Amino acid sequence: MKQKKTHLAVFAVALAALVGVLMLVSRTGYGQTQADSKAASTPALQPLALVEKRTAVAAAEKQETSLFADAAARNTVLKYELSWAFGGKQQRGWYLYTPLISRLLEMDGEAAGPDFASALSRWQTTAGLHPSGVLDDETLYRMVSAWQGSRLKNKVYATPDMLLQAPSADFYDPARPDELRQVERETYAAYKRMVAAAAADPSLGLKVTAAGELAPEEKFFKIVSSFRSREHQAALRAQSPDSGRAGLAVNSPHFTGRALDLYVGGEPVETKDSNRALQVQTPAYRWLVRNAERFGFRPYYYEPWHWEYVGVGTAENK
Ligand SMILES: [Zn+2]
User: Domain end: 149, 175, 199, which one?
Assistant: First the structure.
């Protein structure tokens, strides 16, 4: 008897729950019909109110357009003329970084027009800056710190067990010696996935083998430089002691085996503005700016060829 009562109680609770769920479903209609029926049942705005609203919106848009037209005019000048500094070196303009800037602003185009200024002002708001839409030095320094902050944090000097020797076919210079073709293992696997995606992208028109690999005569996306030992780095510095290039830094990310210099056009690793201007226009570089992050690679903004593997989906990267 007691058992039967328990059964009845369980049945009652289950029935109540079922009724509850059914009521919820019919009320929300899974969240869709409610919105539709609400829109249908809400009386439309009165014609006069509608006209007033439209006029107000148009006025606000017109004001915004003229505001950003002024910002756009300033950006057109600053793009080539802004005076700023990086790594103790005087810099001129931000035109070399337009692909990265567009990516940061989640824009398709990169013309420094009113749309650009409008997108920039939204980014400035999220960055806690005055939303002027003008890409001035303060805004540029904030962008540089965003790019620099997303680079590789892992500074572990690669030990031999962390490295593999990549085939010479992966290299820009196929005659590159064995000891200079070492790459950290995960980085290499990610690089191969990324290059396979690039090779399969018809918009790049890369020369590809039947197996879908980059053809021997294709130079774009090939590795120019990977792991560099401290000894090798010291030798490079001795060769060009005056070089301010980060590639020759005492504490280079190339020590980790996770930094790859990839061929993106022009002189492979030459920081002269004219060379970088050429590189940032190539489809290969632009593809990397749009896609490398999917494969775990982040740019070093100043060197279009230098990419660092931080992994995928790591908010606090390794
Ligand atoms: Zn590099």
Answer: 149
